Amino acid sequence: xxxxxxxxxxxxxxxxxxxxxxxxxxxxxxxxxxxxxxxxxxxxxxxxxxxxxxxxxxxxxxxxxxxxxxxxxxxxxxxxxxxxxxxxxxxxxxxxxxxxxxxxxxxxxxxxxxxxxxxxxxxxxxxxxxxxxxxxxxxxxxxxxxxxxxxxxxxxxxxxxxxxxxxxxxxxxxxxxxxxxxxxxxxxxxxxxxxxxxxxxxxxxxxxxxxxxxxxxxxxxxxxxxxxxxxxxxxxxx
Length: 238
Ligand code: ATP
Hints:
Blueprint: E1 5-14, E2 17-27, E3 32-36, H1 43-50, E4 58-63, E5 66-67, H2 73-79, E6 81-84, H3 96-102, H4 110-123, H5 125-129, H6 140-152, E7 158-162, H7 170-185, E8 189-194, H8 197-203, E9 206-211, E10 214-220, H9 221-225, H10 228-234
Parallel strand pairs: 3-8, 3-9, 6-7, 7-8
Antiparallel strand pairs: 1-2, 1-4, 4-5, 9-10
Helix pairs in contact: 3-6
This protein binds adenosine-5'-triphosphate (ATP).
């Protein structure tokens, strides 16, 4: 059986700088898979390539049975692959509700869109309370919630989250991690990039450690969480 997402020997370069040096991994439907690793390891580059924003040098990406190489970014969203990017990238002058509506820009099913906006408000009640407010007035954590809510508005088969806990207080981070668990329980498949390795591994089915463009270690979330080299390098233990 083919996995929902299959990445084979992916290489991505910025000019002469090779940021991703031949990585392979898969994401099965219903799973949470995490990519962890230090700054500059190539995690964001990997997600941007899967989204169609960067062209790989070589490698094959298969999503839901279709080859993604050469497919444009809009088409990839329409196929069911959504990306909540690093640094959030919400539209600060638009209201929260307008930001959510933009996440559904490819859909024509107005009633279902309204239902999904309600669902985003159930997931993140603060967004509902502030629905008419300019998104730029939200706190960092709230903007992260909005970015996740907006990505969900495309009804993705696979949701890619790039460092959702970045810059958040421990309480906000817990809230985001709890929401990722809820989304998984509702059947959403998630590819999670995180600097916070311990939080990511504790909820992931599988994880991959990236180091300077390569996957250096793979395992179940629990295996990696208890791996001595991972504990030393990424969980701050000695
Ligand atoms: P971080 O957690 O810091 O975001 P990352 O694992 O996501 O790290 P990437 O952002 O994918 O890493 O970066 C991988 C490598 O590619 C780094 O060496 C980075 O400097 C380089 N890089 C990223 N974006 C560009 C760019 N637009 N032009 C040139 N080099 C880039």
